[in-house]
Amino acid sequence: xxxxxxxxxxxxxxxxxxxxxxxxxxxxxxxxxxxxxxxxxxxxxxxxxxxxxxxxxxxxxxxxxxxxxxxxxxxxxxxxxxxxxxxxxxxxxxxxxxxxxxxxxxxxxxxxxxxxxxxxxxxxxxxxxxxxxxxxxxxxxxxxxxxxxxxxxxxxxxxxxxxxxxxxxxxxxxxxxxxxxxxxxxxxxxxxxxxxxxxxxxxxxxxxxxxxxxxxxxxxxxxxxxxxxxxxxxxxxxxxxxxxxxxxxxxxxxxxxxxxxxxxxxxxxxxxxxxxxxxxxxxxxxxxxxxxxxxxxxxxxxxxxxxxxxxxxxxxxxxxxxxxxxxxxxx
Length: 331
What we know:
Distance between the termini: 21 Å
Helix content: 40-55%
Order of helices and strands: HHHHHHHHHHHHEEH
Shape: globular
Strand content: under 5%
Number of strands: 2
Largest sheet: 2 strands, antiparallel
């Protein structure tokens, strides 16, 4: 999928956390260009601002998943949750492309000072929620923490249908969740590509098969669409599933493993394609409620540079791969 010059210029006029990915994934810039942009994130814009909010003890907002004192505050009675605590900050910094070396001894400070709200467990051990553990696994691997035991947790906590569910540990569900399964496989892929440890590959691929067998969109039992969340495109998506986020994961798998797109992604690709506006942009969806340090994307209903990056690279990957396959078939 070709990106017109006007759209590309609009996307490039952005924070370095976004711009380097546009340069690499859409503009075809040489590595020295996008690597230089990426290297500027900790000192410029979103990356610099988020790093400035880090507490002396290594945390953000004084807490692991929720800010310190959250459950005793009026904020706990509001919709959603705050997105300012340590887990969310690390997730953002990692996904924006910040070099782990910039965070110096953050991993050690968190090991010493940060505990989960659940059972006061130490930060890098994870806890019982699969989504929290997925974020922690990916961030730990990024920061050089030995999280092999946490990685192994995923292999023993898969459900019988192949995926994961954050409610399973409390006995509330024996069926996997689209949200939980996508978070799990994304965390496992980040762990594998960062560390080179392939011990969790089988579990990851099993979770991916759970999603693929449902074509990323449908119930296994009836074939009906699972719900409106699959087409709710929003950035940041935090933990929520959508066809767009799922396709971006499978694009990352394809690049990491050198494999072509699975044909079962076709319906989700077309859903994403239909959401593209005439000018080539994707619109911001309804934001997830909760306090943030600062906004990083457009208001609801306006063109989103982040969603346009992700949507454009997904369609480019899919269309180029399908075109290559067609040429080989008829060559």
